[in-house]
């Protein structure tokens, strides 16, 4: 199992007792505060664009060009949201498409990858190591170099402009299989032996023993998959042309203010931005602990 | 059926659904990305053209420009991202309270959860040369407005800056976990020898983190090599090609000029270049690490 790393005290506190060295303590204090200030400054900088997006989405077109720019809300208005949601484009449908595709990919992708990870970790079969090595080695390749081949392949399979083309390629994630395998390798064999003696079948071993014990990894991967699928842009941009099937990321490029922004369009563009940012942020807040742990399993155990 | 046979059968049963999709959507496209550089398509039918696409792309000035831009971007971004994430992460580990550490990790991760499409549009507003925030702040200190995205000198660095602001989350989380996982005995020994603060960070923490640094550097490089979304929304490759990246050129060949063959050749270049960079990084780190 994954243990939450604890910090040994020695690592944190550094008492320096001997006299005559207090200058060093002073220097450390100052140095520590400077790095703390830098940390807070960077946190501020990295949150600022999001704050700016939310704030601007509640402004009127003219206000968004005001100088000096208003750093907080005066006379908030929902005009931009009304404009986006009542546009002639099916914005709500796009949001629903994104939700449907992301949830489907997350649920079925996890099941497929958890089954494969289980086989790689706990079953012996011919070719296992070669297959696993092949899966691993594709993790190092940039996904973008598969864009054109996958585009032609799905074109020849007549999959363009269907939900399938957004769902199927996302299901087989080498990263997920790798992570789940690493996790399942650490489960004690006695558990499985005992259950087998008690008469559990193979499916039950997987479903009732292996999966529940892998929950932290599955939660992390689920969050990760949902966010990545929701935010995916290039692939649906290439393969979806039907207005009704577009996910929100692609759909918004047609809205006013997205690809080219006129003077008064910023609040509208920001409102679209907020609408597509909200679901991943909610998911992240719900599962943040798993998410953080999941990201580190792959890096530290690999 | 004996036990081993049954084990084997169930192994295949569990792995097959994944394997089928993996073959179709990952492995086949990977193999195709090599083959397709030698094909041109006419009405869904491939025609073998040998080296023609590769010749064309290698003689295209824009290709070399895009390679230069991509490598410049990757160099600036990866170096700055690893250094900044490392600095922030080490500072985070100095907090004794686990809740504070996790809160900070989440806080730094959150911006990377927001879609790049949304982020890119906010930044176009922030970079705007008339009423954008950056130019306003500069005007307060008396600096002339800069046309950040419209000037070939500043456009690519602006994209680097934008991606640094949003893209450090993963690196920070991995580095924090790595620092907390280091054996404490080493730090005890260093304390006895009188190492403190900066010395400890430079001579103990960072050298011990080399494997994590390599991991973050390689994954960051792979992501940065594929820079597309911010170019698509902010600059369209301009001004005068100063932000044309290999990924954006690939996309343009295929979907604007409808030359799938050229796009495949450019895509293959992206693949090979990324692999080459990853190998260079591995080599370089191996020569640095002395265990």
Helix fraction of chain A by DSSP (H/I, runs of at least 4): 55-70%
Task: Specify the CATH class of chain A.
Answer: Mainly Alpha
Q: Given this structure, which CATH class of the largest domain in chain B is correct? A: Mainly Alpha
Largest sheet of chain B: 2 strands, antiparallel
Largest sheet of chain A: none
Integer count of domains of chain B:
2
Q: Give the CATH topology of chain A.
A: MetI-like fold
How big is the Rg of chain B? 24 Å
Shape label of chain A: globular
Number of strands of chain B: 2
* Order of adjacent strands in the largest pleated sheet of chain B: 1-2
- Computed structural class of chain B: mainly alpha
Oligomer: heterodimer
Looking at the overall shape, the CATH architecture of the largest domain in chain B is Orthogonal Bundle
Domain ABC transmembrane type-1 (chain B): 67-281
Keywords (chain B): Cell membrane, Membrane, Transmembrane, Transmembrane helix, Transport
GO cellular component, one term (chain B): plasma membrane
GO biological process, one term (chain B): transmembrane transport
């Amino acid at each position: 199992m994954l243990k939450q790393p604890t910090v040994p005290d020695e690592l944190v506190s550094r008492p320096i007792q001997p006299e005559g060295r207090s200058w060093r303590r002073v220097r450390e204090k100052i140095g520590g505060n400077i790095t703390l200030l830098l940390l807070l400054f960077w946190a501020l900088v990295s949150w600022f664009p999001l704050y700016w997006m939310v704030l601007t989405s509640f402004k009127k077109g003219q206000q968004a060009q005001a100088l000096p720019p208003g750093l907080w809300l005066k006379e908030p208005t929902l005009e931009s949201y009304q404009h986006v949601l009542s546009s002639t484009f099916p914005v709500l449908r796009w949001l629903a498409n994104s939700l449907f595709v992301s949830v489907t990919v997350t649920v079925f992708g996890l099941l497929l990858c958890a089954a494969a990870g289980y086989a790689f970790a706990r079953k012996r079969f011919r070719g296992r190591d070669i297959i696993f090595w092949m899966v691993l080695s594709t993790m190092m390749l940039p996904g973008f170099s598969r864009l054109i081949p996958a585009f032609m392949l799905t074109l020849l399979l007549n999959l363009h402009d269907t939900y399938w083309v957004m769902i199927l390629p996302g299901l087989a994630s080498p990263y997920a299989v790798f992570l789940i395998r690493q996790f399942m390798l650490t489960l004690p064999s006695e558990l499985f032996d005992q259950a087998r003696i008690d008469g559990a079948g193979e499916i039950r071993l997987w479903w009732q023993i292996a999966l529940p014990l892998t929950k932290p990894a599955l939660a992390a991967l689920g969050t990760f998959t949902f966010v990545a699928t929701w935010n995916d842009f290039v692939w649906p941009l290439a393969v979806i042309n039907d207005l009704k099937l577009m996910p929100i990321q692609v759909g918004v490029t047609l809205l006013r203010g997205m690809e080219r922004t006129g003077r008064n369009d910023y609040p509208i563009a920001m409102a679209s931005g907020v609408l597509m940012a909200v679901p991943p942020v909610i998911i992240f807040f719900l599962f943040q602990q798993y998410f953080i742990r999941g990201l580190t399993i792959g890096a530290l155990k690999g | 059926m004996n036990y081993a046979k049954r084990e084997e059968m169930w192994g295949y049963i569990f792995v097959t659904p994944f394997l089928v999709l993996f073959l179709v959507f990952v492995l086949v496209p990977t193999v195709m990305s090599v083959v397709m550089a030698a094909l041109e398509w006419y009405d869904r039918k491939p025609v073998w053209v040998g080296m023609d696409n590769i010749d064309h792309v290698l003689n295209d000035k824009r290709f070399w420009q895009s390679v230069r831009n991509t490598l410049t971007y990757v160099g600036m971004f990866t170096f700055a991202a690893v250094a900044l994430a490392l600095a922030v992460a080490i500072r985070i580990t100095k907090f004794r309270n686990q809740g504070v550490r996790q809160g900070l990790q989440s806080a730094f991760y959150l911006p990377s959860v927001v879609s790049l499409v949304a982020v890119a549009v906010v930044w176009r507003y922030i970079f705007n040369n008339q009423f954008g925030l950056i130019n306003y702040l500069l005007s307060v200190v008396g600096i002339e407005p800069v046309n950040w995205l419209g000037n070939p000198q500043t456009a690519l660095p602006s994209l680097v800056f934008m991606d640094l602001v949003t893209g450090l989350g993963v690196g920070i989380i991995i580095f924090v976990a790595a620092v907390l996982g280091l054996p404490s005995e080493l730090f005890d020994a260093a304390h006895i020898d009188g190492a403190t603060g900066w010395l400890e960070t430079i001579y103990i923490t960072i050298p011990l983190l080399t494997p994590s640094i390599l991991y973050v550097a390689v994954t960051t490089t792979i992501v940065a090599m594929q820079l597309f979304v911010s170019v698509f929304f902010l600059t369209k490759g301009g001004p005068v090609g100063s932000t044309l990246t290999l990924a954006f050129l690939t996309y343009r060949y295929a979907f604007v000029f409808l030359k799938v063959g050229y796009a495949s050749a450019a895509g293959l270049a992206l693949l090979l270049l990324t692999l080459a960079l990853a190998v260079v990084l591995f080599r370089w780190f191996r020569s640095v690490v002395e265990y």
